[in-house]
């Protein structure tokens, strides 16, 4: 039985990291040395805390697969195993935004409240009662419930446990209030007084149904002015560029002539107007990155309520089924009488 070794390694940039090293046997009995980065010294300030995070990995190395299910294991240990396997940068199964959200729910809710519970002691009704006691919206509780189910499926996949008690947990995701939807007249009134860049932002958001991540990731080369369409090929979340959320998102989007005219006016005066430049490039980063998020909307004097109302039409039309793209919602919004 081996215990492996923990080594603190320095980096040129950022804090030092903990590396876990162990030996394995190849197919022909040859010894193979392996290593894995466990985390930074900010996450694990001392060697004892770093050693605690690799307990599950050590069990996986030393014990036969059939013996793992009988080992007592806590929810926190499974969380550590899940983070090391599924939420690393080189894992492409999940998007950056999903990894970020998972880590937030793990560190803020699941590990502090349920981390010390053994997997064998998790009960469906107890989890239901706990979720109902959280001071969160139903949609947030539903996300925590789904993440717990993902954790147990992960444990079953790696033969660390033999069942998923979250499968029968009931948790709704119904909205507390019905979202208000701006009328075409209200959207036109909202455009009054906006700068040219912000006007183009609102027009695109209201008429095409693009997600914020897709909206800020548009480049000038994606817009086909002659065909009145726009290609959506990427998204940007917290400054990280990646693929769109769904494959159906990567379809040409019809763009109304009024929106194209506003975009053309913005293109004539903006500093970054080459085909490979961002349509809404960040001046702070000298065009290397697009602008992002709530700060941009607030500069245009748009609060969270205004943003929600702008995006409500696409949700009411069924964003997941992409009906808003095919229904030419821009025509309904921009051609309607005021």
SSE inventory with pairings:
Elements: E1 5-9, E2 17-25, E3 31-40, H1 47-52, H2 55-62, H3 65-68, H4 75-86, H5 96-114, H6 124-133, H7 138-157, H8 184-191, H9 196-208, H10 212-215, E4 223-224, E5 229-230, E6 235-237, E7 240-242, E8 253-254, H11 257-269, H12 294-299, H13 304-316, H14 323-326, H15 329-334
Helix pairs in contact: 4-5, 4-7, 9-11, 9-13
Summary keywords:
globular, hpI Integrase, Chain A, 3-stranded antiparallel β-sheet, DNA polymerase, domain 1, 3 domains, single chain
What do these coordinates show?
The structure is a single chain. This protein has three domains: 1-48, no CATH class; 54-176, DNA polymerase, domain 1 (Orthogonal Bundle), CATH 1.10.150.130; 184-334, Intergrase catalytic core (hpI Integrase, Chain A). The protein is 43% helix and 11% strand. It has helices spanning 47-52, 55-62, 65-68, 75-86, 96-114, 124-133, 138-157, 184-191, 196-208, 212-215, 257-269, 294-299, 304-316, 323-326, 329-334; strands at residues 5-9, 17-25, 31-40, 223-224, 229-230, 235-237, 240-242, 253-254. The strands form three sheets. A three-stranded antiparallel sheet has the order 1-2-3. Strands 4-5-8 form a three-stranded antiparallel sheet, with no helix packed on it. A two-stranded antiparallel ribbon has the order 6-7. A hairpin with a 2-residue loop joins strand 6 (235-237) and strand 7 (240-242). Helix 4 (75-86) runs antiparallel to helix 5. It is globular.
